[in-house]
Design brief:
208 residues, alpha+beta, 2 domains, 5-stranded antiparallel sheet, 8 helices, 51% helix, elongated
């Protein structure tokens, strides 16, 4: 490789390190071209998988301030550069490595912090950011709908619910610390909640 080509390759790697949220280093000895293509697809949209030269990568990593790969750049190396949620890429690497033993996950870096193969495996076990946000949004909407119905209930009914919940709290103080999520409400509270009418505006209003 000509000196100018090496300089260009190093500059590109430096840019990848600096513009990526994370990078996962692998050794792909024994994988075919077709398997590498399958691996690239398995990593998802947030990652690109690049075969790299160890000597140039050492130079680029040092220039980019990345020391997570020190001592790991040996053998046929390839790096998954991640931009965004790292979970899908970590899952893709882990699952592909399980099915294709020649792929070895050697380490990585995420938000500037070094990662061991074990830490990468833990990331692979997590839910993706999209799944977590969807679950959080669902729980929030369910709680919000219940609160809207309750606050739009007649005052006497609201007081009855509050009184029943207060009595339950006196019996089980852990409710005040969040225990209510696992403790069913009393019969009075449950009955009162079931009787709460829809939120204002949900019912049809008579003409005139």
């Amino acid at each position: 490789m000509a000196r100018s080509d090496k300089a260009t390759a190093v500059a590109e790697l430096v840019d990848e390190f600096r513009s990526s949220d994370g990078a996962l280093l692998t050794e792909y000895r024994g994988l075919t071209v077709r398997q590498l293509q399958e691996l690239r697809r398995a990593l998802g949209e947030n990652a690109t998988y690049a075969v790299v030269k160890n000597t140039l990568t050492k130079i680029a990593a040092k220039e980019a301030g990345v020391d997570a790969f020190d001592g790991l750049l040996a053998g046929p190396s390839a790096i998954a550069f991640i931009k965004g949620d790292p979970v899908e890429a970590a899952k893709g690497l882990r699952d592909f490595a399980r099915a294709n033993s020649p792929l070895v996950i050697k380490g990585g870096v995420l938000d500037g912090k070094p990662l061991t193969p074990g830490e990468i495996a833990k990331i692979a076990d997590l839910e993706s950011r999209e799944v977590l946000l969807a679950r959080l949004a669902g729980a929030f909407m369910a709680s919000l709908q219940g609160a809207v119905s309750l606050f739009n209930a007649p005052l006497s009914q609201f007081a009855r619910v509050a009184g029943a919940l207060q009595a339950k709290a006196e019996q089980d103080p852990s409710i005040l610390a969040g225990g209510a999520a696992s403790t069913p409400p009393s019969d009075d509270a449950a009955a009162a909640l079931e009787a709460v009418p829809p939120a204002a505006g949900a019912e049809e209003t008579p003409e005139g």
